[in-house]
Amino acid sequence: MHVDFLPDIILGNIFSYLSLQDLRNSSLVCKRWYSILNDEDNDVWRWHCIRKLTEEVLSSDLLSSTPTYKTKLKAFHHAWNPEDCSRNIYIKPNGFTIHRNPVAQSTDAVRGKIGFSHGRHAWEVIWEGPLGTVAVVGIATKEATLQTHGYIALLGSDDQSWGWNLVDNHLLHNGDSQGNYPMLNNAPKYQVGERIRVILDCDDNTLAFERNYEFLGVAFRGLPEKLLYPSVSAVYGHTEVSMVYLGPPLDG
């Protein structure tokens, strides 16, 4: 039987065994294949999710901001990088959450798997354990340090990283405070479990944040035109931080 006469359900079953690169290429073959693969919540993407993601994370609230199987899969491929973190950090089996081991006099950081140099990108960070004296969320280049002695704001301590310290609401870059953030009188402090949305605009070279869906304003301008990675740095033992990539931010 010619492939054109195969029912959609059979084509979908075949597609579920292809790699993501092959699926991307397949979507360009014809309108019918594009239509099947453009359905982000069909069995093709469901089977890929089941193979890559744990049942625990698929049934949890962690991925509630990624409504389709395809967006959940994309979030997984953008999650924390187990090969690009401090030796005192490990990635939990869910693939989205780091755990910092209780090592004294150390500050530890992690980067996401994929960096960005063009387009607009958003991701959520959820601090699921105590903040300690310093807890910084932001971005870093590949050159930024991922571990140092003592308890410091590691993210933002050099010219290769930019961060927001959730403990004292200071912006940090190149070792200096860039002022308070958000620019509000008596701005509330971060509460453990709140979702911080990070918005990186590589076209406008800016970094901004939202908290509980409230836009807090642009935090950094004039970012360099190089690969920038989601990043956090932490000091508290047993603290855990999750990151979920969302894709292009929704305006308004």
TrEMBL record:
Pfam families: F-box-like, SPRY
Keywords of the record: Neurogenesis, Synapse, Ubl conjugation pathway
Pathway: Protein modification; protein ubiquitination
Keyword Transferase in record: no
Tree of life domain: Eukaryota
Subcellular location: Synapse
GO CC field: SCF ubiquitin ligase complex; synapse
Location of the B30.2/SPRY domain: 58-250
InterPro entries referenced in this protein's UniProt entry, alphabetically: B30.2/SPRY, B30.2/SPRY_sf, ConA-like_dom_sf, F-box-like_dom_sf, F-box_dom, FBXO45-Fsn/SPSB_families, SPRY_dom, SPRY_FBXO45
Residue span, F-box domain: 1-48
Biological process terms in GO annotation: negative regulation of nervous system development; proteasome-mediated ubiquitin-dependent protein catabolic process; protein ubiquitination; synapse assembly involved in innervation
Reported function: Required in the presynaptic motoneuron to down-regulate the levels of wnd and restrain synaptic terminal growth at the neuromuscular junction (NMJ).
Classification via PANTHER family: F-BOX_SPRY DOMAIN-CONTAINING PROTEIN 1, SPRY DOMAIN CONTAINING SOCS BOX PROTEIN
Assembly behavior: Component of an E3 ubiquitin ligase complex composed of hiw and Fsn.
Family the UniProt entry places it in: Belongs to the FBXO45/Fsn family.
UniProt name for this protein: F-box/SPRY domain-containing protein 1
Organism annotation: Daphnia similis
Lineage: Eukaryota, Metazoa, Ecdysozoa, Arthropoda, Crustacea
